């Protein structure tokens, strides 16, 4: 067997071994998008999707909003990103959606559509196994709207580490390190408070 062929075979084999090359994707690794179902129409937008796309419900959600359905829909297929964007544009334009933003950069694209009080954000990016189309929909926020707060933890759930740690107080300039009632405070060096001694607090 010629030496170049042996070297080429060895390099390919090493590239597939996990951990040998961080920059190479192992084609035999687990695919995070599994359990897709063939789809021809977007559930959130009600417009035709590019042929050959599959919906992955495990990576999306849908809820009733003030301006209709809100949520995330994840689709993947073999369609070219530019072709997929054109199919979605044609379908959305036919239902009264107006394109407000279109940005593309090396295989990735984002499109923002508006219809009345509703917004739709479509992101497209190319992967080894096809094109991923993410569809986000929701109501347009009024001018001056505040950033929505993160979801509250479930009732009954507690985080002992967070309870023991100091809590942040807005305007106080940092973490609140005031000892809790019953906490142990020890001081070394300097008999008077504020004389430069070392103080240990059990927080």
UniProtKB/TrEMBL annotation:
PROSITE patterns linked to this entry: PROKAR_LIPOPROTEIN
UniProt organism field: Desulfovibrio legallii
Feature: compositional bias, Gly residues: 188-197
Keyword NAD: no
Name assigned to this protein: Lipoprotein
Segments for region (Disordered): 147-203
UniProt signal peptide: 1-23
Biased composition (Low complexity): 147-162
Domain of life: Bacteria
Keyword Nuclease: no
């Amino acid at each position: 067997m010629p030496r170049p062929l042996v070297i080429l075979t060895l390099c390919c084999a090493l590239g597939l071994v996990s951990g040998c090359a961080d920059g190479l994707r192992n084609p035999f690794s687990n695919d995070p998008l599994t359990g897709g179902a063939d789809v021809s129409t977007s559930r959130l937008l009600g417009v035709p999707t590019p042929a050959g796309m599959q919906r992955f419900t495990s990576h999306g959600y849908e809820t009733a909003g003030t301006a209709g359905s809100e949520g995330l829909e994840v689709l993947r297929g073999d369609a070219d990103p530019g072709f997929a964007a054109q199919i979605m544009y044609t379908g959305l334009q036919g239902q009264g959606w107006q394109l407000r933003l279109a940005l593309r950069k090396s295989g990735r694209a984002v499109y923002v559509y508006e219809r009345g009080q509703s917004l739709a954000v479509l992101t497209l990016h190319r992967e080894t196994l096809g094109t991923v189309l993410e569809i986000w929909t929701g109501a347009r926020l009024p001018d001056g709207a505040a950033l929505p707060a993160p979801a509250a933890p479930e009732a009954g759930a507690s985080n002992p580490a967070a309870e023991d740690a100091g809590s942040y107080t807005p305007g106080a300039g940092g973490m609140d390190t005031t000892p809790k009632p019953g906490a142990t405070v020890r001081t070394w060096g300097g008999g008077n408070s504020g004389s430069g001694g070392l103080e240990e607090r059990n927080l």
